[in-house]
Amino acid sequence: MKFNADISSSRRKSRKAHFSAPSSIRRKIMSSSLSKELREKYHARSLPVRKDDEVRIVRGKYKGREGKVTQVYRKKWVIHVDRVQRDKSNGATAPIGIHPSNVVITTIKLDKDRRAILDRKDTKKSKEASGDVEMAD
After folding, report:
1. Can you tell me the distance from the alpha carbon of 111 to that of 119, in angstroms, rounded to the nearest whole number?
2. Residue 42: helix, strand or coil by DSSP?
3. Which of 47, 53, 74, 75 counts the highest number of beta carbons within 10 A?
4. Once rounded to an integer, what is the mean pLDDT over residues 14-42?
């Protein structure tokens, strides 16, 4: 069922919009879910992944590995995680790209902008704020 008449439901157009998206929109698409502890603490489900976040890989060949995000490679839709790399034939190491949907954020790098995003996303706070309002006589 189509919900918004202004947005096409065509597979072709959706894929084109996704793969030709600008960096600002890629940031939002490249979000990861939060761990259960962080979900309880911040009352948010997911967050766009960022350079110094710590993540745990939950899908794929490197499942179970933990590390710090060293790079968010928006052009290739991947993140590079510390200590998730392979040895090349010349002896050098190359980082392996992992899609953000396959990781869970375990530690958030907080600054004022990130804190503002979490406060805005906080579902509990918004429910409490709207629930405490009383009718005036």
Report:
1. 12
2. helix
3. 53
4. 96
Please tell me the distance from the alpha carbon of residue 79 to that of residue 55, in angstroms, as a whole number: 10
* Cα separation, 18 vs 30, whole angstroms: 11
Q: Which residues, listed in sequence order, are joined to residue 47 by a DSSP beta bridge?
A: 32
User: Considering the entire predicted model, what is its pTM?
Assistant: 0.84
Torsions phi, psi for 66 (to 5 deg)? -120, 150
Q: The tokens of 94 are what?
A: 């190359």
Q: 3-state SS string over 76-128? A: HCEEEEEEEEEECCCCCEEEEEECHHHEEEEECCCCHHHHHHHHHHCHHHHHH
Q: What's the pLDDT tens digit per position in 104-130?
A: 999 999 999 999 999 998 877 766 666
